[in-house]
Amino acid sequence: MENALNRANHDVTDVLRSIDAATSAGRRDVPFEQTQQFHDVLSGAHEFLLNHVEEQHLDITSWSLDTITKYAEIETGAYVQEWRIPINEAEMRKISAALVKELTGFGPLEDLLRDPEVEDILINGYKDVYVSRCGVLEHSPARFADNRHLLRIVRRFLVPIGRRLDESNPMVDARLPDGGRLNAIIEPLSVTGPCVSIRKFRKEPFTPDDLLARKMFDKSIHALLRAAVMGRCNILISGGTSSGKTSLLNALASFIPHTERVITVEDTAELSLNHPHVVRLESRMGGFEGDGAVSIRDLVRNSLRMRPDRIVVGEVRSSEVLEMLQAMNTGHDGSMSTIHANSPRDALYRMEMLCGFAGFQGTESSLRRQIASAIDFIIQITRLNNGRRVISSITEVIGTSDEVITTQEMFHHEIATDLEGIEHERWPGLGFHPHTPKLEPYRQFLRDAGGGLP
């Protein structure tokens, strides 16, 4: 207790010094809650409140939000009065409101986590926070008092899921209880201090109609995607980071008939398929010595014994590519996955490379034949400069010729400028009907949808 009081006294001294410095420098041109002074006062008030909680043996975790709010207001007032901190009533209310977020939530991140427009939260040290809204990065006024404060909030995410972040384990990648994903890395691996990336996911995933309304594609592509999924075509979604691959995969799953059993396999569970019969599998990292690890490859192999109608691999990035190709080639048509690549051709090259790393024993020509027979369509998705995600092309994998995988592009995205300088986007079809016999029953359906299909 004596150490806690000494630390509190030291914190208050720092608070008073920061207020004097800020006042003498005339730094009142920014909102109070964005200043170091605010965070110093908040840190001191937080320490003051916790000391009282410990002295009085209070269990604030069992209190209602209203009770905690009133208690925070009382303690903030007592702290300001006892140490004669020169802030006004409005500033004191902001301190007590922030204190409630510290006690019941995730402090400076609480408002960002509740904002439905925020897709990503990127933290580069305690006072440098960026957010992504609609695919566009922007600086956020949110910040932390110091790196110790930032680490305290990050560990609040990790404790309930049994993960650690310390000198012996300076990197962590975790799935949050609400379905989001957190990645954090600290010194000495990070030179700029603790760096945290939080990926948020919608509680209600986008439907194909939602993506159509957002102009990710047009009606002709909507019809082709529906026919491809219902016709049990094997689909690979290719794109860069934050291009919308997972959102599109979630949407495509809504076309899967409800009579089918779907098994998803992921490194970190992110998919939220709008389907009544989904079994979700997630890989597991090993212990300190690597024991107990379960890879995606192990899970894909095991999923074949679980009577799947379709297998959805969240992302192909390693040796699991071999098992996925075998599944697609051995009766599990209609399977889907995503891959990081800049174009459909690059996606095929990357699959070849991953198969080589996985120890594929055959020749290059046999590997390409296996890839060509497994994959029916490659959907390339791109994030434009304005943040919008669009399908930039849909390519059908036809087969092999002269030991090269042959493809044909069905649709591609283009932006044209008219005589008045107004930009218009469209997805012209190239006039080819898909070669795969899986879509033969949908020929009339696709013809009626237009888009240049014969």
From TrEMBL:
Q: Which CDD domains match?
A: VirB11-like_ATPase
Q: Which SUPFAM superfamilies match?
A: P-loop containing nucleoside triphosphate hydrolases
Name-wise, this protein is CpaF family protein
Instruction: Give all residue intervals belonging to the Bacterial type II secretion system protein E domain.
Output: 103-383
Q: Which family does it belong to?
A: Belongs to the GSP E family.
